[in-house]
Amino acid sequence: xxxxxxxxxxxxxxxxxxxxxxxxxxxxxxxxxxxxxxxxxxxxxxxxxxxxxxxxxxxxxxxxxxxxxxxxxxxxxxxxxxxxxxxxxxxxxxxxxxxxxxxxxxxxxxxxxxxxxxxxxxxxxxxxxxxxxxxxxxxxxxxxxxxxxxxxxxxxxxxxxxxxxxxxxxxxxxxxxxxxxxxxxxxxxxxxxxxxxxxxxxxxxxxxxxxxx
Length: 213
Prior knowledge:
This protein is α/β, with parallel strands linked by helices. The chain has helices spanning 56-66, 74-81, 89-108, 122-134, 148-160, 172-178, 199-209; strands at residues 2-4, 27-29, 44-49, 70-73, 112-116, 138-145, 190-193. It is built from seven helices and seven strands; from the N terminus they run βββαβααβαβααβα. The chain has a five-stranded parallel beta sheet with strand order 4-5-3-6-7, sandwiched between helices. Helix 2 (74-81) packs across helix 3 (89-108) and helix 3 packs parallel to helix 4.
């Protein structure tokens, strides 16, 4: 089901690498039979999914500005263990294992965690589902997307270092390889086009985080 959100106010701070659509619409596509599940624990896991350039890290920063969260970012971990990064399966395996251990520790402490990573494969996502269930953490899955011309421009600007907070070194070649590897998400999830107005999407995510649904 495709749900249009009403026109929202323009963002007060626009990022060149993540332009706002002047039409002012944001679309969330929900899997069928979408249900929010609430538990008494304060632990929360927000799982971002999407190839490089689709706006995951930007969305993560926007969420963290409004809600206190620990962000586990594979780009940061990759920089710590690989010089330079190759994005090979072996390297990615080490990166994700490190990330999963961090997430498990944080959820054990009852923290709200946002996992900023491509998370392309369902087998990897299943490990995170099990970790969330182990610590009775509420789970929100968000897949980010954007038109390819927008992604290409973002990755071009990334190479130029326009956005200092962008830790990823993945370029167009990595995106082109990874986009075809994204496997279907078999759980209820949101889909957010990050080239469009983000405010309605942010408000929906914040309601979930605050347990206001």
